[in-house]
Each structure stands twice: as structure tokens, then as C-alpha cells.
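Whiteboard transcription, Tuesday session. T.W. wrote the C-alpha cells on the left side:
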């Protein structure tokens, strides 16, 4: 049985992470200086297999047949949050330049899907999604 770090805790030693080791996108950006606010790929190796805090949990449940099940609610361990926050701020700035018709009080910034910045955002969020999936798998094993 393994200990699963929770809250702000993480592993003291670097862990294996297939997503970060095998993703072409992760390999391409791993040793690049990231803009302030974006996650550093190296951080993920210490976060993989950790639960987090807030509304994240591991719970034993009984299904309708009486079988014991494990439910995990966890995410990308701040990875996706940093990506979303960074690109939302970028989108807000671009929307000002584009004179977006979306009222400011709606707080709905957007990126045009065919733009380079939108493609970057989608690549980052895909990596965060894959990381979150592997994170849950690691906790189960």
C-alpha cells in the first residue's frame, strides 16, 4: 500500500509519469522557459499520484450489487488551473484589442479557434487532461 500525498503536499522524489515522458508537446516545452503563470513541466513529476485538497477525495462506496468500489475525485494538480488562468488573461487582453462585443460584466473572454494562441491553449489543456487521467490511475495502483 502506498501513501498518497494530499492538500498542498507532493512527493519528495521525482516520480515516473508516462504522459510527461511520452507527450511530444511536453517534450517540446520541457526545457523551455515558460511565461510567468504557466506550469513548469518538471513540477508534474512530483505531483503525479497525489490527491490535492478542496473538494478532491478518495472514497470507498458500495454499489447496488454489494461490491466495494473506490471513487476518486481529483484533477491535474494545479496544472490545468494555471493553464486556464494564464490563457484567460491572454484572451482578455486580446479581446480588448479586438474590441469584443461581449459585455465586460459577462467576464467571458475567448480565443479564435484557428489562432496560434488557441492551438497552444488546446495543447496545454490536452496535456492537463491526460495528466489528470494518469494521476488517478497512479493513485489506484
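and on the right, the sequence the group agreed on:
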Amino acid at each position: 500500500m502506498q501513501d498518497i500525498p494530499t492538500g498542498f503536499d507532493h512527493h519528495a522524489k521525482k516520480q515516473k509519469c508516462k504522459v510527461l515522458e511520452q507527450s511530444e508537446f511536453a517534450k517540446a516545452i520541457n526545457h523551455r522557459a515558460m511565461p510567468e503563470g504557466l506550469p513548469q513541466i518538471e513540477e508534474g513529476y512530483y505531483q503525479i499520484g497525489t490527491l490535492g485538497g478542496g473538494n478532491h477525495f478518495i472514497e470507498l462506496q458500495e454499489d447496488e450489487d454489494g461490491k466495494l468500489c473506490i471513487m476518486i475525485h481529483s484533477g491535474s494538480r494545479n496544472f490545468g488551473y494555471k493553464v486556464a488562468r494564464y490563457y484567460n488573461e491572454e484572451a482578455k487582453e486580446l479581446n480588448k484589442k479586438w474590441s469584443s462585443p461581449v459585455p465586460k460584466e459577462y467576464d467571458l473572454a475567448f480565443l479564435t479557434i484557428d489562432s496560434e494562441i488557441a492551438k497552444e491553449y488546446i495543447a496545454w489543456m490536452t496535456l492537463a487532461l491526460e495528466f489528470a487521467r494518469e494521476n488517478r490511475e497512479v493513485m489506484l495502483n
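Someone added at the bottom: The longest strand covers residues 57-62.
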